[in-house]
């Protein structure tokens, strides 16, 4: 694991939203168990579910003809640009100039923020979930996908895992005001394809521009198909969602373990639940992280929910009222929903 | 206990048969493929398609002798293919677990438990998004050239 890799991991895990902090405490404190009357099933995380499966299914492919090898640029998750380095400090004069410009021209920060938040931060989150290189150790979430769910360790499988997570974010972005949410979605998709193009050259050694274009078109149609299928499943029922996952994430394999499907449906629904409890402001500022597959999301009681809402409202009211808040930190997104 | 396995598998097959039909046709159908997979375990023949005629050993030997590649495969490749073809062994427990999982999915267990409410089902930025999608799928209200054009221009 490279240093950058580690940094991104530690950075993202520190960025847990208040909801996740709360839901974690819910997991730990025993008093809540009794009030919620959870049966045994709901105490299992998706990973527990998969690990308890009696059907020891084997990975589908016997030879991996296209292992993903770390290229020259894969030392970093996003890019070598300073602006995407979490430790980079902008020179004071640049910062002051930026704040001045934002203030004088009354720039809409929510629109500007779409690039760094959706195109960089959220894309990074989606990317690392299934990121794997042949000669590197797997991250905990990648272990879940490749070892527990027995998915093949290929580039296109990584793409499927990534678009599943991107779709989860799309669902939340649709609930933002249209002009912002749409912009966030656009930035996320743009970044995905820019990055795939880079990785195909750097890691998969595809040197022909024509072939890269073909791959990109193929990935584009996969993305459209997957988003459509997941949307259908999300809006209808669990079994439709499971079928969509089976077709896309599991590649329509015959020897699917239903327990794996159940675990993935649980994974998806629990992420969406967390997203539904995150306010526009929190989400728009990038304060969301996917719940790892080995953790359980418990439902909030009405009391906890109002507690959470009050906390968020208080935090952002204070921030908005504070005259020292920088122009670039201001936002018009609602913190009350 | 082979008898028990087929009994459990019969329950599973019945459950799969009750799955709703897909709204649009896909390349592969979950229901069909899983029926084909579990019917033999339950001892039911896949009646809707004629059983493929199995080539005799003499025929296979003949093919391998006559052709070198790609049909006359190397021994180790044949072995690999045999390994890759999923050969599954079921136990009563594993099938019961499959039934339990499938039941949970059919009962909408997670959709009801992790209810996201109208915040996500009727998203503020595009409240009719899912309704339009489902109407189109169910054939209730088809999109026409104008609505399609509107989506392209305005994004919703």
UniProtKB/TrEMBL annotation, chain A:
Q: Which residues cross the membrane?
A: none
Q: Which InterPro entries match?
A: Ubiq_cyt_c_chap, Ubiqinol_cyt_c_chaperone_CPB3
- At the top level, the lineage of the source is Eukaryota
BP-aspect Gene Ontology terms: mitochondrial respiratory chain complex III assembly
Cite the Ubiquinol-cytochrome c chaperone domain residue spans from the record: 147-290
Database matches in Pfam families: Ubiq_cyt_C_chap (PF03981)
- Cellular compartments per GO CC: mitochondrion
> What does the sequence similarity comment in the record state about its family?
Belongs to the CBP3 family.
Q: What is this protein called?
A: Probable Protein CBP3, mitochondrial
User: Where does this protein come from, organism-wise?
Assistant: Saccharomycodes ludwigii
Automatic annotation (TrEMBL), chain B:
InterPro entries of this UniProt entry? Cbp6 (IPR037653)
Q: Name one GO biological process term.
A: mitochondrial respiratory chain complex III assembly
Top-level taxon of origin: Eukaryota
Q: Which GO terms describe its cellular component?
A: Cbp3p-Cbp6 complex
- What is the annotated signal peptide range for this record? none
GO MF entry, a single one: ribosome binding
Which PANTHER family does the record match to this protein? Answer: CYTOCHROME B PRE-MRNA-PROCESSING PROTEIN 6
Would you tell me the protein name for this molecule? Answer: Related to Cytochrome B pre-mRNA-processing protein 6
Q: Which organism is it from?
A: Saccharomycodes ludwigii
